[in-house]
Specification:
By secondary structure, the protein is mostly beta strands. The protein contains no helices and 36 strands. Helices cover 0% and strands 46% of the residues.
């Protein structure tokens, strides 16, 4: 193909008498470069001025032009041209156009060839036969083009390792222009893509070649952390896929994903089938302390008396084993209750509380059967349950007193007031509680 045209232009006027027909008609044989995409038999001008001797590049479109002084439109003309070098004659058939000429495509000629074409004869569809009395040849030279144009790559396309593309050909002195704007035979590449070089010989003929450069690994290597990163809680991470790479993690595991236990610094190294490697580090050291929680509430529960359990601190959300989502719950039976809390960044902590059943406390009194009016007498009280005990009792005369006892046995003093009717001593418990339960 042609980067630019190089040929000698010979004025047509100087070649006016090329050959003469038996009917006295004059015509001129010349050549020209066709407009790209327009066949030679399309009416219209050429890219170049018609000349008798021209040089073209392989792949150019070029045409014969038979130019008449006088032509009869509507007829079809058959033209026979001889070729130099012993090649067969060319027989071209076509009608003239309104520009008083006939254009025929020149057959494909090999690079480096010089071919002389000579008009031998011509006839028309009306039976006319034209005799050639004088014919000056048209000479077509096909210039060499860059041959065996290749692009070689040196260096491996890995991160931070540019590669060099080098263009070469067997066509002699050549200039090179790359699709990324670089001029010269070498091109240093640092990113993936398709790169095309155009080689141009001194004669203007060109050829192109293309190379693909593929940087197999992205940098930084993509890592996805699944969920929040919390001290003391395992975290799952995934390496992004990269050109069929294999992965090796600093915790000794392989594969695209793994699990770490922060705080710590972790790393992953990816290796491609071509041997490129890339490493990414994950720094999970600057983390808040591990999240903790405890359940505040009793360890026992009394019959028919609910127990209240609550979180020790305020968090973003709560999840109890009972299904409750509040910070405090009320339970009515013994058992083990669990709580999981979540803070504002998604870290979690859990705690459990076991509640056992506690019996209601009891009390009994023992002492003298009677107390004299105006006198006092000690009575012994015995408790079942867990100290301390808080007892409210009523004695003769409707006197109510409350007393706390730190053990399962104690003493109370009963002193009936004056005017108390005689009779057996009467003591009764109004209410009683121990460390766990209350009853009345």
């Amino acid at each position: 193909m042609r980067g630019f045209s190089m040929f000698k232009i010979v004025p047509v006027a100087a070649l006016l008498l090329q050959w003469r027909t038996g009917s006295g008609q004059q015509a001129l044989l010349s050549v020209c470069e066709a407009i790209p995409g327009q066949p030679c038999n399309t009416p219209g001008p050429c890219v170049s001025v018609p000349v008798q001797s021209a040089t073209y590049c392989p792949g150019d479109e070029y045409c014969f032009i038979i130019q008449f002084v006088v032509v009869q439109l509507g007829l079809t003309y058959t033209v026979t041209l001889g070729q130099s070098g012993g090649a067969p004659d060319l027989v071209l058939v076509g009608p003239p156009n309104s520009m008083l000429s006939i254009r025929f495509p020149i057959p494909s000629l090999p690079a480096g060839s010089v071919t002389t074409f000579t008009l031998l004869s011509m006839t028309d569809s009306a039976g006319g036969v034209y005799y050639v009395s004088d014919s000056q040849p048209a000479v077509v030279t096909i210039a060499p083009e860059p041959t065996n144009l290749v692009i070689s790559q040196s260096g491996q396309a890995c991160f931070n390792n540019p590669v060099t593309l080098t263009a070469s050909n067997d066509g002699g002195s050549t200039s090179y222009a790359w699709s990324n704007g670089i001029l010269g035979a070498t091109n240093v590449i640092a990113s993936s893509g398709q790169y095309t070089v155009t080689a141009t010989l001194d004669n203007g003929c060109t050829a192109t070649a293309t190379a693909n450069v593929n940087y197999e690994l992205p940098q930084p290597l993509g890592i996805v952390v699944n969920g929040p990163v919390c001290a003391g809680q395992p975290v799952s991470v995934n390496a992004m896929p990269a050109a069929g790479a294999t992965f090796s993690w600093s915790n000794g595991t392989t594969g695209q994903s793994t699990t770490f236990l922060p705080p710590a610094i972790f790393s992953v190294t990816a290796t491609t089938p071509g041997g490129c490697t890339a490493t990414t580090f994950l720094d999970f050291t600057s983390l808040p302390p591990p999240l903790t929680v405890s359940i505040v509430g009793p360890g026992t529960i009394c019959p028919n008396q609910p127990a209240e359990l609550s979180s020790s601190e305020v968090f973003s959300s709560y999840s109890w084993s009972t299904g409750s989502q509040s910070s405090t719950i009320s339970v009515n039976s013994a058992g083990t209750y669990g709580l999981t809390v979540t803070n504002s960044i998604g870290c979690t902590a859990s705690a459990t509380q076991t509640i056992v059943s506690a019996p209601l406390p009891t009390v009994s009194f023992s002492g003298p059967p009677a107390v004299c009016e105006g006198g006092c007498q000690n009575f012994t009280v015995n408790f079942t349950g867990t100290a301390p005990f808080n007892l409210t009792y009523e004695s003769q005369g409707g006197i109510t007193q409350t007393q706390t006892f730190t053990s399962s046995t104690g003493t109370i003093q009963v002193c009936p007031p004056a005017g108390t009717p005689p009779g057996a001593t009467a003591l009764s418990a109004v209410s009683l509680s121990d460390r766990n339960c209350f009853c009345d």
